[in-house]
Design goal:
Length: 213
């Protein structure tokens, strides 16, 4: 198990990092520490953990809580449904039935989207179809955290995994901005890659100050 040697220092350092506008709420702090605990249990190195936190920061709109994608029924149907304006994307997401676009909208720490990805989550988490049957279960922090960590480590989201960009799991070397930028391919191509890379560098500095080991 890895983690912070000085976890009490996290609040001090995150509040000076530029993240959360230097004024993290109790909920944001709790959410961050919750994910850090999971990453420690998974023995994630510094760079992996920083990028996982940056991914959650971006995908949850800095709440550090599993959320439902911003939008609404009409937006989800138009964007993701087989009856919407982009049926090829709907098919890519496995949304073969009318209504799937809204039912399987983005949720969780990584905004898991589409019937195919919910089925993937059921498979890797061993939840036996529960997420397909009740997609809102993706908002459970334990489920969302486990999926973020397992799928990023093993490449279940896109076929790309942490070790492809951030060094081996045993690495103690600081990760560069370019590595963080390309690591966005683990989740979603290069969408917002520059922004997230900058956030990952800030999280890496905070964890380093907290003596991640």
């Amino acid at each position: 198990m890895t983690g912070m040697a000085t976890p009490d220092a996290f609040v001090e350092h995150i509040s000076k990092s530029g993240l959360f506008d230097n004024r993290p709420t109790a909920s944001q702090l709790q959410g961050s520490l919750f994910l850090i605990t999971y990453m420690g249990k998974a023995a994630w190195p510094l760079g992996w953990s920083a990028y996982g936190l940056a991914t959650a920061y971006h995908e949850t709109d800095a709440t550090m809580r599993p959320i439902t994608e911003l939008g609404g029924y009409d937006y989800f149907m138009k964007r993701y449904d087989i009856s919407g304006t982009n049926p090829s994307l709907a098919r890519e997401l496995g949304n073969s039935k009318v209504g799937d676009g809204a039912l399987f909208c983005g949720r969780g720490y990584a905004q898991c989207t589409g019937r195919a990805n919910y089925a993937m989550a059921d498979r890797v988490l061993g939840t036996d179809g529960e997420l397909i049957a009740d997609p809102d279960r993706m908002l459970d922090p334990d489920i969302a955290a486990r999926l973020l960590i397992i799928a990023m480590e093993n490449g279940d989201f896109t076929g790309r995994k942490c070790a492809d960009y951030l060094g081996p799991k045993t690495s103690e070397v600081l990760v560069s901005r370019l590595q963080f930028l390309n690591a966005r391919r683990i989740i979603n191509g290069l969408d917002c890659a520059e922004v997230i890379a900058g956030q990952a560098l800030l999280f890496q500095s905070v964890l380093q100050l907290c003596k991640w080991h």
